[in-house]
Structure formats: structure tokens, C-alpha cells
Amino acid sequence: MKTILDACCGSKMFWFDNNNQNVLFMDNRSHFEQLESGHVINVNPDVVADFRNMPFEDDSFHLVVFDPPHLLRAGPKSWLIKKYGKLNPETWQEDIGKGFKECMRVLKSNGTLIFKWNEDQISLKDILATTEFKPLFGNKRSKTHWLVFMKNESEG
Predict the structure, then answer these.
(1) Do 32 and 13 meet the contact criterion of CB atoms below 8 Å apart?
(2) pTM for this structure?
(3) What domain range is 128 assigned to?
(4) Cβ neighbours of residue 13 closer than 8 Å, sequence gap 6 or more
């Protein structure tokens, strides 16, 4: 049983070991493409599933990483969209809120949720307004934020 879930792994860009045996890599798509620009798109998850409705039992993981797509706007042929995905401009608040709930559902009591967000198109304040869960700590001054949450026993 793997103890860590990466709920939106994309091309596993921030992992030092993107084949870590403790991690179950999940994304809503699988895609490989080498672009004329030289960029390689390689989204190759262990499980293809939606972060809003995960196929795992409650209390399954000790650590969950939630790094959903950050973009609302980009060209339809943009390599950024191919690599990182795109949020639905009409439902992104509901989608992110469902994602937080699902991450907490599959997280064990006293487990840790690591959330990554880039403020290029949506502010962190607006993202945090989509969920009732509150971060313990994280960086507040950069454009890309890493926040840490913990699932309390009362949230199980």
C-alpha cells in the first residue's frame, strides 16, 4: 500500500524522484507529446481519475499532495495547458472546493496535506475562500505558494 498520494501529478515536475515507490501518482489524463519547441509533455500517472471524485477509500493516505491546474486562460494549443492542465472558468471555485474535500477525505486522521498554488491568474486568497480547511503554515510572499494542512481527528 502506497502511503502518499499526488492527486494532480501532471508531469511530476517538483518530485526529486518521480518514480518514488511510496507515492501513488494520479491525474485526470495521460498524455505524451514532444513539441517542436523542444518541450516534452509526459503525463503518465499510475491512476487516471478526477481529483473531485477520487477512487480511494476514506483515510487511505498519510500524505496527500494537491497541486491542481492554476490556469483559467491560455491559448488552446498552449504547451502550458498541455503540460499543466486548465481549470474551467465557470466552475473553478466549486472544483477546487471539491478537490480539498476529497483530499481530506482520503487523508488519514492527523495526516498532512501539502497544497501548491501559483497566483498568476487566481489569488491565493480566492483559492482559500473555496474551502473551510485552514492552512497551518506556508510561504506568503512568493508567487508560488506551498501550504501545509493537517486533518484533525474531528474532521474524519
Answers:
(1) no
(2) 0.93
(3) 4-155
(4) none
